[in-house]
Amino acid sequence: MVDRRAAGVPLEHVLGWAEFCGLRIAVDPGVFVPRRRTEFLVRQAVVLARRAASPAEETAAAAGQAGALPRVIVVDLCCGSGALGAALAVALSQVELHAADIDPAAVRCARRNIACAGQVYEGDLYDPLPTSLRGRVDILAANVPYVPTQEIGLLPAEARVHEARVALDGGADGLGVLRRVAAAAPLWLAPGGHLLVEASERQAQQAVEAVARAGLIPQVASSEELNATVVIGTRPVPKTGAGG
Ligand SMILES: C[S@@+](CC[C@H](N)C(=O)[O-])C[C@H]1O[C@@H](n2cnc3c(N)ncnc32)[C@H](O)[C@@H]1O
């Protein structure tokens, strides 16, 4: 193990796991190592999901039906090891979790990490998701690749050499995958549901524009401590009937 680490293999690939949100997440060779900064996206998602659940909780508690609470539907798109989905399943009590990735190695890994907490699918973005989820997703967490192609060569060798290119390369300006995710998000989100994507601080404005262009209400959250920027897009809730 020391030899492999000294040769530049990321510690998490040597050990076979990474710590993420206090969980031990299995990470196979080549699979993206979940980053500490992405815990910020998880925290934002938890706050939004709890805020959405609280009116239903109050109603159920008043009716003495706490067990009858609606489950939060969470999708972890571009899930890699499934770290975000696993963390959200632990943090939110009632969750229906779906995760997807295009890389078969990531999908195998996510299946181990998510195990009985949810379903993992293989394919391009939304393609493998069950169509029954359309219009019902409360939290759509998508830590997509966002490194501009020209900047891949500047990454540390641990990422450049040991993580799959598809996990890093976001196209010319780094936002190619993010734009595709944002454009289709309104089809999958429930009214009031949230898309959360990570970007660099420099990319935030363009990411906001992509989210707004898709018809979602954009918002940016950032953490100086974790050097994290998250763009949130919320599907508007349609106004109820006249005078409502
Ligand atoms: C930056 S990694 C993030 C992985 C994980 N969400 C995390 O934060 O640890 C991006 C992931 O997106 C996946 N990916 C890239 N393009 C994709 C596509 N078109 N459809 C589905 N997954 C894709 C990669 O395989 C990789 O696992």
Walk me through the structure.
The strands form two sheets. The protein has a seven-stranded mixed beta sheet, with helices on both faces. Strands 1-2 form a two-stranded antiparallel ribbon. Helix 3 (39-62) packs parallel to helix 4 (83-91). Helix 4 links the parallel strand 3 (72-77) and strand 4 (95-101). The longest helix has 24 residues, at 39-62. The protein is of the alpha/beta class and 244 residues long. It contains eight helices and nine strands. Bound molecules: S-adenosylmethionine. S-adenosylmethionine (SAM) is lined by residues 32, 34, 38, 78-81, 83-84, 101-103, 106, 124-125, 143-145, 164, 166-167, 177.
**How many distinct beta strands?**
9
What is the first-to-last residue Cα distance?
Answer: 65 Å
Which structural category fits the helices and strands?
Answer: alpha/beta
Compressed to H and E, one letter per element, the order equals: HHEEHEHEHEEHHEHEE
The molecules bound to the chains, other than polymers, are: S-adenosylmethionine
Q: Could you say which overall geometry the principal axes of the C-alpha atoms support?
A: globular
Strand order of the largest sheet: 5-4-3-6-7-9-8
Radius of gyration: 18 Å
> Major sheet, described briefly?
7 strands, mixed
List the helices and strands and how they pair.
Blueprint: H1 2-6, H2 11-15, E1 17-20, E2 23-26, H3 39-62, E3 72-77, H4 83-91, E4 95-101, H5 104-114, E5 118-122, E6 137-142, H6 157-162, H7 176-188, E7 189-199, H8 204-213, E8 217-223, E9 228-234
Parallel strand pairs: 3-4, 3-6, 4-5, 6-7
Antiparallel strand pairs: 1-2, 7-9, 8-9
Helix pairs in contact: 3-4, 7-8
The structure holds S-adenosylmethionine.
S-adenosylmethionine binds next to helix 4.
